[in-house]
Amino acid sequence: MLNIVRFSVLLIIAFSVAPTYAHHSFAATFSDQIITVEGTVERLKYSNPHVIVYFNVTDENGEETQWLAEGGSATTLRRNGWNKDTLVEGDYIRITGESTRNGSPMVSMQESDSINFVDPSTGEIIGTPGKARAENAGVFDMPLQLANGLPNISGAWTGEATGRVGRPILHVPPMDYNEIGAALQAEFDPVNDPQVQCEPPGLVRQAGFSPHPVRIEQYDDHVVITYEEYAGLRTIYFDDRDLVGGEHTHLGQSIAHYEGQKLVIESSYLLPNLSATTGNPLTDQTTTVETYYRQDESNGRAVLRSDMLATDPGYLLTPWTISWSKYAENDYEFIEVECKKPLTN
Predict the structure, then answer these.
(1) Domains in the chain, number
(2) Domain around 277
């Protein structure tokens, strides 16, 4: 019978991977050294912001250690056929990914094909978790207007707003920093990202940068916006009842209005925050203007477009616009958020 090496370090150049949407950079936790680890699944934490696999690894001396494999968001893996039962207690798996920066028993799982089911007696791969990529069902010929003539942007808006490979769903141009902002960005280390420690994100990161699903509810005097990533919730009125001044918060103070067939939201009183997984710091002087409008495809598929204009006299020389587009999807259920701080030695 083939002897199975349950933990091995492969001294090779890290392989390239496609982007995985995560709430912080994997570089905050993981190094560039590739390792392969295999063992028996204890449980799967199938939630956002990151899927985590708990599994037990037995070394050559028969000693058992619990390991964690951290993947991308459950939202992304669901598109690749994963669900809460994809891995169950007793499954024997092999994972190839990056080791941690601090040497803790943890490995990255940035790609769904970096994990395989393995026959423990032969070492042969016998399968890969997940199924064929699940396509967004989409909504077609959704009315552009509500009965009252306002733009119809209610519902769940998710994932890729196009089926064409290579067309981005998130447009994030470079920031035009002044000297202070440029110096801070140059010093950014992913390990210092507050989201690594499960801190709440700022408005620009939650509403602008996130590529994950959003749900909008329209009412006579307000709108409610909820976000799958970070589990953000905003109630925004069409009057100034919430513009009370005083304390700054992560999501700030906002007021909404309609301009023709567009919903416009203006926000201020924001805490200083990083606006992306790559850093992009902003000060508490930042104000934002969000514009939401329909931009359906030629085949009638409903698409929501968002443009966020961020102005920050503290760090930016010019305003910065970040944009995304998402599909309407019926009966979409948000995945719960259960953030876990990284392991220490």
Answers:
(1) 2
(2) 155-328
Residues 6+ apart with CB under 8 A from 20: 26, 71, 72, 73, 76, 110, 111
Token couple for 343: 């392991």
pLDDT grade for 345, boundaries at 50, 70 and 90: low
Residue 274: predicted pLDDT: 95
Low-confidence winner among 20-34, 39-53, 69-83, 123-137 (lowest mean pLDDT): 20-34
Positions of E strands within the chain: 7-9, 30-45, 52-58, 64-71, 92-100, 106-109, 115-118, 125-127, 155-158, 170-171, 214-218, 222-227, 233-237, 253-259, 262-268, 273-276, 279-282, 287-294, 303-311, 320-328
Neighbours of 179 (CB within 10 A): 9
Cα separation, 196 vs 98, in Å, equals: 17
- Write down how long the chain is: 345
- How many other C-beta atoms lie within 10 A of the C-beta of residue 330? 10
297 and 213 housed in the same domain: yes
Are 89 and 168 within one domain? no
Q: Map tokens 């587009």 to a residue.
A: 325
CATH number at residue 264: 2.40.128
Determine, yes or no, domain membership for 1. Answer: no
Is residue 284 a part of any domain in this protein? yes
Residue 308: DSSP 8-state: E
* Same domain assignment for residues 61 and 192: no
160 shares a domain with 63:
no
> What is the rounded distance in angstroms from the CA atom of residue 233 to the CA atom of residue 226?
5
Which residues contact residue 333 at a Cβ distance below 8 angstroms, ignoring those fewer than 6 apart?
none
Asked if 101 and 182 sit in the same domain, the reply is: no
Q: Are residues 85 and 201 in the same domain?
A: no
- How far apart (Å, rounded) are the C-alpha atoms in residues 34 and 147? 56
In a domain, 46, yes or no: yes
The CATH number assigned to the domain holding 15 equals 2.40.50.140
Is beta strand 64-71 parallel, antiparallel or unpaired with respect to 106-109? parallel
Q: By the 8 A CB rule, do 338 and 74 touch?
A: no
What is the CB neighbour count within 10 angstroms for residue 223? 21
**Predicted model pTM:** 0.79
Nearest residue to 283 (alpha-carbon basis) of 270, 295, 297, 293: 270
